[in-house]
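Morning - protoporphyrin IX containing FE inputs below, output right after.
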Amino acid sequence: MINKVFDQEYLRDPHGVYAHLRREQPVAHTITSQGVRVWLVTRYEDVRAALNDPRLSKDFHRNPHVMKDNEMEGGDSSGAAAVVPDNMLFSDPPDHERLRRLVVKAFTAGRVRAMRPRIEELSTGLLDGLGGEFDLIKEYAVQLPAMVVGELLGIPEPDWPKVIRWSNTTIEGSALDPGEVVAAAQATIAYLGELCAAKRDNPGDDLISAMVQAHDDSSRMTASELVSTSWLLLVAGHETTVHLIANGMLALLSRPDQFAALRADPALVPQAVEEFLRFDGPISTSTYRFTTEPVTIGGTDIPAGALVLVSLLSANRDAGQYERADELDVTRDPGQHLAFGHGIHYCLGAPLARVEGEIAFRHLLERFPDLELASADLTWRPGMLMHGLERLPVRTGSPSTRT
Ligand code: HEM
């Protein structure tokens, strides 16, 4: 039987829906909001195993019709199919290894470390002047990661707003008109194509230039792979971090004891960031995978040529894995949470996201120790991939002071 999971109830209370699925139907055959049949995996152990299973492919060149084959009558998967392939997230070994290695060569720990002072500066600049009542997402949580990824890739500052707008449209794909999603992806690719060509002639001190070098020295990344990888870094690199900051702040503001504990001991911030990722991470489901042969997950048989989504949000609340899984506890060590995925596609940007998160929470707590929610009327954004709020209205009693 196929049940619809991604409905209004899911948007209102995804954790409630996932808790029910983990109990009753841990590998559920369901339909996406675009009318595509998928198998949805919700228990921690099954999610981890699925993310490590080489029979679940991410390379849609290997089965170009798999999306169409799984459309229901009247369904439309073209928005989901608009992702730009030829990068590591949409490839299998050995291509995956080659593409990831080339980016790792350029996106080094040293590069992330070197960005720290600039991230501090950008954050301080954004917080200056904020006070009273404001939308924490619009004024801060969206801005900081967008600026950081713009700087990382070497996108000229005047272009940041339009590039970020296209990227938002791509990310919200599952909730929008497929035509709009395709157009946004095409605009980004055209823009990045020109940018990569410009960086080849005129390299700067940025990640795209470093990837161009890695590409030219080894001739192992094609021009289209380079553009596609830049697209991936742009899209993967900002919206996620927005919701790390916003979901984490919502969790804190709704629990004054946790807010007080973190304020009292700011050394807990890095660990609290991990707990925010576990408790209410930015990604609800992973990107699509498909079965290359029949596979059994958690006792459920899935045929070949089927689409599989694993829920990271659900896995991280599995009571089989975590004691008091539904409680936020900034003093706990959330161990191997799955918010950054698992296996060969484990998030490449996790070190940067952690630095951004740590700086953001430290600054927000220092600046606004009396921050509170300004409204209880909060709306989660549509779409099945991301888990984030539309707005986060907050207020602070005292004027802003410098960090
Ligand atoms: C809190 C912020 C972030 C979260 C929660 C997050 C989460 C994830 C997850 C779950 C995956 C795996 C998806 C799958 O297997 O289907 C992934 C992959 C990836 N992420 Fe992140 N991400 C974050 C920030 C970033 C940043 C800042 C960057 C880069 C600037 C980035 C770059 C990537 C890349 C390149 C991949 C593909 C890795 C591969 O396929 O080998 N991410 N991320």
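Note: The mean pLDDT is 90.

O.
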